[in-house]
Design brief:
With 146 residues, the chain is mainly alpha-helical. The chain contains seven helices and two strands. The longest helix is centred in the last third of the chain and has 18 residues, at 93-110.
């Protein structure tokens, strides 16, 4: 088997109906499991973990409020002067929650037609970094290269 076939085999093996029945954070568990299974030592050393969607959403609300009430960013996360940086984004749950909050606020203030523009503009001010490398030892791929 060549490495190029691995992604195709992986995608073919996914039971999409089972995943769709899962919660909104199914992908978090897949990511966390892959780190545990294929690269546990770096994960332990770095302290990598996945924050549940519900926790991330609760963190975003007060942050958005502080941007407005204490930092003068009248549109919160959507303000042109507000930048979001996630230094260990993993699956991108935090940036995604920020974009969802911007979309909800835009819809509430300007209707459904305001959502696309608000989210598009915000993506230029969101940066995500990930220090944890992807899993390095996949089945049937042999030992990791150095």
């Amino acid at each position: 088997m060549t490495f190029t076939l691995l992604p195709a085999r992986t995608v073919e093996a996914v039971d999409r109906n089972r995943i769709r029945r899962g919660g909104r954070d199914t992908y978090l568990h897949l990511y966390e499991h892959s780190l545990d299974e294929y690269d546990p030592e770096p994960r332990k050393r770095s302290g990598s973990s996945c924050t549940p969607v519900e926790v991330v959403e609760q963190m975003g609300r007060p942050t958005d409020d502080v941007l407005v009430t204490h930092l003068g960013k009248q549109r919160g996360f959507a303000d042109p002067g507000a930048f979001t940086v996630d230094p260990a984004m993993g699956t991108g749950t935090h940036p995604h929650a920020v974009l969802e909050r911007i979309a909800a606020n835009a819809a509430a203030l300007g209707g459904p037609g305001a959502v696309s523009g608000a989210v598009t503009r915000a993506t230029e001010r969101i940066v995500g970094l990930e220090p944890q490398r992807a899993p390095t030892r996949w089945p049937d791929c042999g030992p990791p290269s150095s």
